[in-house]
Amino acid sequence: MATNITWHGNVTHEERVQITQKKGATIWLTGLSASGKSTVACALETYLLKLGFPAYRLDGDNVRFGLNKDLGFSEKDRNENIRRISEVAKLFADGCIIALTSFISPYKKDRDAARKLHQDAELPFVEVFVDVPIEVAEKRDPKGLYKKARQGIIKNFTGIDDPYESPEHPEIHLHTDKQSVEECVETILDYLKNRKIIG
Ligand SMILES: Nc1ncnc2c1ncn2[C@@H]1O[C@H](COP(=O)(O)OP(=O)(O)OP(=O)(O)O)[C@@H](O)[C@H]1O
Ligand SMILES: [Mg+2]
């Protein structure tokens, strides 16, 4: 635990919003591997940027190349992975950027902690359940991970030998077996407009 530390502040979040004329938020995509989190987040990021809204994607795999390269996939490491991402996403949101996180984030407790972190700072947190039946995800298997998990080469794989706790009250519930990527992006954009996060 760090001691003898003091929070330094200068510009408040409200002042930042006033100066930049932009609102930050965290869009938290959760769902099984191959449900489409990264695909939807990439498309949404491009769309938001083209519309002139600063957006930045924090993606499960990418973050594990750098910031979280010291973490594995045990429950403890997954907790720490999500905790760090929650903190980073919150910083982006505070900086009036729309943070798009795409992590399986299988445990409700971790997602709720991310939500609380944002709520305490009065920053919007939008939980998006990227839902798909596991059979469909397993058939897609773009990275060959389900195959390896079935063969026992990968252990603790969500949906196979590790649980996925579905969100009970997500702000947005997508079904990527029935909705196209474009429809998923539209659904999220409509929500952001209704909440006046984007104009
Ligand atoms: N409606 C859809 N939305 C998103 N992806 C779709 C959809 N329909 C088909 N797909 C396909 O499903 C796959 C989803 O893979 P993607 O890497 O986005 O999943 P992920 O949830 O990020 O998985 P992981 O947790 O392993 O990173 C892609 O090959 C994508 O083209
Ligand atoms: Mg992904």
From TrEMBL:
Catalytic activity: adenosine 5'-phosphosulfate + ATP = 3'-phosphoadenylyl sulfate + ADP + H(+)
Listed pathway(s): Sulfur metabolism; hydrogen sulfide biosynthesis; sulfite from sulfate: step 2/3
EC number(s) on file: 2.7.1.25
BP terms from Gene Ontology: cysteine biosynthetic process; hydrogen sulfide biosynthetic process; methionine biosynthetic process; sulfate assimilation
Keyword terms, alphabetized: Amino-acid biosynthesis, ATP-binding, Cysteine biosynthesis, Kinase, Methionine biosynthesis, Nucleotide-binding, Transferase
Signal peptide: none
GO molecular function: adenylylsulfate kinase activity; ATP binding
One family name in Pfam for this protein: APS_kinase
CDD domains in the cross-refs: APSK
InterPro entries in UniProt: APS, APS_kinase_dom, P-loop_NTPase
Residues annotated as domain APS kinase: 23-174
Role noted for this protein: Catalyzes the synthesis of activated sulfate.
HAMAP family reported for this sequence: Adenylyl_sulf_kinase (MF_00065)
Family: Belongs to the APS kinase family.
Protein name: Adenylyl-sulfate kinase
Organism expressing this protein natively: Eeniella nana (Yeast)
